[in-house]
């Protein structure tokens, strides 16, 4: 462990306890989780948009009898 690592841990502990301004460990974890969720929802939306385009094209195609 380096002295800088220890300083960072102490600073983060002070933030977590409200003694220093900044983003707490809990807030950082929540932000990371939310960013992952947003990325997943964006991927799902893109898949649904593509599927909707394919289905719409299928419905517009004249039927052959």
What structural class results from the helix and strand content?
mainly alpha
**Rg for CA atoms:** 24 Å
The outline comes out as rod-shaped
- Strand content is under 5%
Low-confidence stretches: none
**Number of E strands:** 0
Which sequence of SSEs, written as H and E, runs from N to C?
A: HH
**Major beta sheet, specifics?**
none
Helical residue percent band: over 70%
Distance between the termini: 76 Å
Number of helices: 2
Give a structural overview.
The protein is rod-shaped, with a radius of gyration of 24 Å. It is mainly alpha-helical and about 60 residues long. The chain contains 2 helices and no strands. The protein has helices at about 5-15, 25-60. The model has no long low-confidence stretch (mean pLDDT about 95).
Which terms summarize this structure?
65 residues, mainly alpha, 2 helices, 77% helix, rod-shaped
Quick structural overview:
By secondary structure, this protein is mostly helical.
């Amino acid at each position: 462990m380096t002295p800088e690592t220890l300083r960072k841990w102490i600073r983060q502990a002070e933030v977590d306890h409200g003694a220093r301004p900044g983003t707490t460990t809990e807030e950082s974890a929540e932000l990371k989780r939310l960013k992952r969720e947003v990325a997943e929802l964006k991927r799902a939306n893109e898949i649904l948009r593509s599927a909707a385009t394919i289905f719409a094209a299928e419905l517009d195609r004249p039927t052959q009898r």
